């Protein structure tokens, strides 16, 4: 089943110019990227307890560890060697290669720094089911949707450097349990994300062949924003509103 | 990726008896079936506004319409004609056959009765992304997990008649906008669910061949409870706590 396509009948036949297309993609970020989410604001503003930051970090691990799977799923569909080689950078950035560690290891440095047990984090036993559902929806989307749409879903990276800069500054300033060493993940993403986003943006400009495909690409960014937003909604509901679902991480208890 | 199996190393090698196996399945319901969820209690207790019941009904539509897809996905994997024929009942119960309408149509009678536009409901445009993610996780699970585990995931039906009886009585008593005619869906499920559950329970008793498979079946019921719980969490967060995500149904506004 696809739920990426908007209602085709409502789409004008005239294609968007390159600039209009990019502006439509960027407008989605302005409307619903997760920097607008109340949990994000609490995280950066120092309003969370260490236990709430732990909950965020161990849930977000599910997303981090799914990213190279979704990128490999995309590569598995690509017959163009150059596109695959370019996309491989993303997998290496997250998984590492040879002696170079990747983003997932850097994320575990953060969860270590927060005092979480590595086996508990990587088992994902304490993660919210809603987190897993959202993350796996993203993997499925990239595996099954048309290739140009799958590429477009990565374009939330256009909006990421701003959020990462805010995160580094806000978290270092506001939490005594956060120091420079555990923020390496975000610092590295400041250079990785823009390179990847520029490539993907150019790719969809060249490969979305008509207005329907262009709108499907815009909708892919909307979908991806939903994936990110739903994760913060689940965290907010469980760990700010206090409705922790059965089986999920409970701050202060022995979890393992 | 599978996330159904518990850690095999922790499972004793002795298989459970038929009765112990059934008791382990039923214990999951006692622990985390969604009749324990605060939103469920509000729904049945008459504590919701008509708009909140609308939000529940249009989100739950996503689940209803996914159920025959997940059952068809299961049938598509089955080489045993008798099992497929038995399972076909479920698809017919939801989709209808010939002149007989099915559960999805009966669900739309409920959303009609709540004053929702049918095209809006069936488009699922106003549904919460978290609802879609949870529901599609269930379809994927049934498509990809071992067959006996996929069958086991249906076993929340063991716990359904109680919730449906409560729902019929509670909603009729507590909401002036609910009458007998719109509750037909639940009345029909009172007879359908136990028949299906009895069959599936007998199937897994006969086909889970060792303790590891038995525990995977118990975990499948846990997974399915998470699918149901996450849907109510998302509704609760959006429509009780008031954190409606971008693009979702907004009570009182023109949605469509």
Explain this structure to me?
Two copies of one chain form a homodimer. Chain A has 256 residues and is mainly alpha-helical. Chain A has one domain: Up-down Bundle (Heme Oxygenase, Chain A). Helices cover 67% and strands 0% of the residues of chain A. The first copy, chain A, has eleven helices and no strands. In chain A, helix 3 packs antiparallel against helix 5 and helix 7 packs antiparallel against helix 11. Chain A starts with 17 loop residues before the first helix and ends in a 16-residue tail after the last helix. The N terminus of chain A is likely disordered. Chains A and B meet through helix 7 and helix 11 of A and helix 7 and helix 11 of B.
Attribute tags:
mainly alpha, 67% helix, homodimer
What topology emerges from the helices and strands here?
The structure is a homodimer of 256-residue chains.
Chain A: H1 18-32, H2 38-44, H3 50-75, H4 81-95, H5 103-113, H6 118-123, H7 129-144, H8 147-152, H9 160-174, H10 184-207, H11 211-240
Helix pairs in contact in A: 1-11, 3-4, 3-5, 3-7, 3-11, 5-10, 7-11, 9-10
Beta-strand content bin of chain A: under 5%
Oligomer state equals homodimer
Unreliable sequence segments of chain A: 1-6
**What is the number of strand segments of chain A?**
0
Structural class estimated from helices and strands of chain A: mainly alpha
Return the CATH topology of chain A: Heme Oxygenase, Chain A
CATH architecture of chain A: Up-down Bundle
Approximate shape of chain A: globular
CATH C-level category of chain A? Mainly Alpha
- SSE series of chain A: HHHHHHHHHHH
The name of the CATH superfamily of chain A reads: Heme oxygenase-like
Tally of discrete structural domains of chain A: 1
In round numbers, the mean pLDDT of chain A is 91
């Amino acid at each position: 089943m696809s739920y990426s396509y908007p209602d085709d009948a409502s789409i004008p036949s005239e294609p968007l110019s390159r600039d209009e297309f990019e502006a439509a993609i960027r407008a989605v970020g302005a409307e619903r990227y997760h920097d607008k989410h109340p949990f994000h604001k609490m995280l950066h503003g120092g309003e969370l307890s260490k236990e709430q930051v732990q909950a965020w970090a161990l849930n977000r691990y599910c997303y981090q560890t799914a990213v190279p799977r979704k990128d490999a799923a995309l590569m598995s569909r690509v017959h163009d060697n150059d596109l695959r080689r370019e996309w491989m950078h993303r997998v290496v950035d997250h998984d590492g290669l040879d002696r170079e560690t990747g983003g997932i290891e850097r994320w575990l440095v953060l969860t270590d720094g927060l005092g979480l047990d590595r086996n508990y984090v990587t088992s994902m036993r304490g993660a919210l089911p809603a987190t897993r559902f959202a993350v796996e929806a993203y993997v499925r989307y990239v595996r099954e949707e048309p290739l140009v749409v799958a590429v477009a879903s990565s374009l939330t990276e256009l909006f990421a450097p701003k959020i990462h800069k805010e995160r580094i500054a806000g978290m270092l300033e506001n939490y005594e349990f956060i120091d420079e060493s555990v923020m390496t993940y975000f610092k590295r993403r400041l250079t990785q994300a823009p390179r990847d986003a520029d490539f993907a943006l150019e790719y969809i400009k060249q490969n979305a062949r008509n207005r329907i495909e262009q709108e499907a690409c815009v909708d892919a960014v909307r979908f991806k924003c939903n994936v990110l937003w739903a994760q913060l909604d689940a965290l907010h509901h469980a760990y700010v509103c206090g409705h922790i679902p059965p089986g999920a991480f409970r701050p202060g208890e022995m979890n393992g």
